């Protein structure tokens, strides 16, 4: 790809200056899609940790409701970039979610969806505590391979 | 793709039974690569949270060292699936990493790499506390779009 880029930069394809930004942008998009670490700051993203403690006798029900909620959100909401949920092995009543939304608007849209409201209503008596922690990602655009 | 799969299943391509599992596997791999949620359990994965508190006057130095460490690991270690690090907005001395390794062997390899040892040695006087929390992912194979 570097060779093609050099050809473009040096004008060897003879296509004129207008072609360079067009193809350059295409190559950049291609490179970003193929890389596990995108090269542009994801400055509009909302990145948050949610920490939950669930009542012990509600853990299995909570997991089912959470799984349905996050899988639906990932499938139907383009602006929900991840809802990566983990359960602690040593303390199975404790859950942490890494939530990444493309923008504040994507987050606001998410919390009005039927699947989120179903999850929220269905689990309200299962959740002993919920802590929402706003964060800044160290490497914006970091992905999961 | 569903159309192609139906053609294969019904034998309309007339290629015999041997072709179905071969092409089926190829389509499955393709689908997994293109999906934000892989459809097979990632049972060998090691999924962990690391929680760190950094001394206040060391936060910027720590961020630089951590950034170099995670970017290098993501670039050169196929078995490091993510090292997604966040800094809390309200408590900027607190960091959390979601660490996903493809297998226990990938994790053992990671902690012997030059870049990990450089990070670990270079930051040992910056870290006030470190807590490592073994977890189980709710949706194995969940990705970041």
TrEMBL record, chains A, B:
Keywords: Monooxygenase, Oxidoreductase. This is Antibiotic biosynthesis monooxygenase. It comes from the Bacteria. PANTHER family: ABM DOMAIN-CONTAINING PROTEIN (PTHR33336:SF3), QUINOL MONOOXYGENASE YGIN-RELATED (PTHR33336). Gene3D superfamilies: 3.30.70.100. Residues 46-136 form the ABM domain. InterPro entries: ABM_dom (IPR007138), AI-2_Isomerase_LsrG (IPR050744), Dimeric_a/b-barrel (IPR011008). It holds the Pfam family ABM. GO terms for molecular function: monooxygenase activity.
